[in-house]
Amino acid sequence: MIRKKLNREVAIVGSGISKYGPAGDGITTRDLFVEAYHDALKSVEEGLDPKQIEALYIGNATSDLFEHQMHIGPIMTNWSGLIPRPAIRIEDACASSGVAFREAVLSIASGVYDIVLAAGTEKMTNLPTSEVTEVLAYALDGVSEFPPGFTFPGVYAAMCTAHMAKWGTTIEDLMRVAIKSHNNAALNPKAHFNISIKDIMKNRREKAAKEGKVIPSWGDELDFLQDSAQNPVVAWPLRLFDCSTICDGASCVLLAAAEIARNFTDNPLYVIGTGQASDYPLHGRADLASIAATKYAASQAYEMAGVKPKDIKIAEVHDCFTIAEIVAMEDLGFFKPGEAVKAINERITERNGLLPINTGGGLKAKGHPVGATGTGQIFEIWEQMTGKAGPRQVVNKNIDFGLAQNVGAHGATVVVHIFEKR
Amino acid sequence: MEKNNFTIAEYQAFLNEGKLVGSRCLNCGTVSLPLKPICSNCQQSNMELIQMSGKGKLAAYSLIAIGPKMMIEEGFDKQHPYCSGIVELDEGIRIPARIIGLDVGKSVSESVGTRCELEFLQKDNKPDVLAFKIVPNS
């Protein structure tokens, strides 16, 4: 087969993000979007006149159900002052803005546009947790998975039991993923949970002391996470600290054709590989302990980029649940099947490790405003690869290749991008 | 079984009759469950219906403490979780289902692979739900 390539090169020239977390009553997807959009414009080193933006690709899972607002493409165009530019709203569940980013890249590569905005926005906290659980479960297969009671955590929990049965993965392995995510998020002021698990423990001990209650005697973080009063089961074997957060947020990425990118910045980040794939519901897949669409999407992206998994120096993977990070590390080819856990235990994926993963705190602790997550991951990669990540900047100065993987629901959609710093 | 249009309405009607029905491609033999109108292997639309044996083993599962509205209405909550799982049928094909009678004291490695059999959960004024019951001492 002929190696598929972009017709012309595309680069990121700026990116921005809103604060992730509960945004408050009355705040809407458009308010969150404007916060991220301002942040993105401000980030362009040489400035970018908004008039130059030719089209908007907006990821959003379901403002329809969360805030009774559909057709949000033109609303975001209106709120950014960019009427009459075309806007495309993309829904691919939790992969909505990763796919929006891909479509934005393809639109520039096609030659139709030179400068476009890819973004995502989601306001989830209007609904109580039980209703959010219900709405997210609509992203599963409505014929086979929803009727027998599967939820979004439930289907990943099933994947987790398959991984445990096949590879011997343990509850403690999952917990180490959450501990790492929180340690990273503690350095990220935009994170929903901008706090380490150690500090959560400290706060809860102090609260108990203040209220005259028995002060809990947890030893380390694992001990705390074993305490079911602190870490209740959501969908066994997954507990609260295995699950990404329900939160509000928006993220934006400004893209330009590579030949004009240096008009805006001395540090364009090149998009050198893109891949996307679909899959059956979980039961229809050959291996229940893997997300095959990740493999398909990644192989397209690696081939287009001309790089191999071992070349990647930093990655954002879709850890909607702790088990999903483990599965992604294997499906992306970073580690052999069944060996991701070993890498976690050897601290390879920590911020100062050989392959830092989810340096912003991941979906677990940075947050998972579903439709905003994909471009939010790319924001993190862009900040790290252009040296703008401040206190959470990785130690490795030579992060020439980075990767972002964004998953829709249980892997029925996966989109993978590879970036290069030149 | 006679030919039909391979719609979801027909699939649910079979479930309501206590039958789990998939489709088999007359061109390449690939079986799909639930039934489907187009083959995933050869993309032909030449299908026949195939009724499943209803015997299999548990391949993956979860004890769900926070469920959607319909499960809360059935009385399930954090103190009373329900089990949803994926069953691998003896025909070699899998299907998600409610799982009844799983011993929650057993480990994952003990539970995965446990034999189970087709069972249906009748619900008032609602479509029947596919369930599998764990075969004791299997």
Task: Explain what you see.
The complex is a heterodimer of chains A (422) and B (138). Helices cover 36% and strands 17% of the residues of chain A. Chain A contains 15 helices and eleven strands. Chain A has helices at residues 29-43, 63-67, 72-79, 96-109, 129-137, 152-167, 171-185, 197-210, 221-226, 258-261, 292-305, 322-331, 340-345, 362-365, 373-385; strands at residues 10-17, 55-59, 87-90, 115-122, 233-236, 238-239, 249-257, 269-278, 314-316, 401-408, 413-421. Chain A has a nine-stranded mixed β-sheet, sandwiched between helices. In chain A, β10 and β11 form a beta hairpin. In chain A, α1 (29-43) crosses α3 (72-79) and α4 packs across α15 (373-385). The mean pLDDT of chain A is 97. With 138 residues, chain B is mostly beta strands. In chain B, 13% of the residues lie in helices and 40% in strands. Chain B has helices at residues 8-16, 69-73, 108-111, and strands at residues 21-25, 31-32, 47-51, 55-64, 82-89, 94-100, 115-123, 126-134. In chain B, the strands form two sheets. A five-stranded mixed beta barrel of chain B has the order 4-5-6-8-7. In chain B, strands 2-1-3 form a three-stranded antiparallel β-sheet. In chain B, a hairpin with a 4-residue loop joins β5 and β6 (94-100). Chain B is globular. The model of chain B has no long low-confidence stretch (mean pLDDT 92). The chains are: A alpha/beta (422), B mainly beta (138).
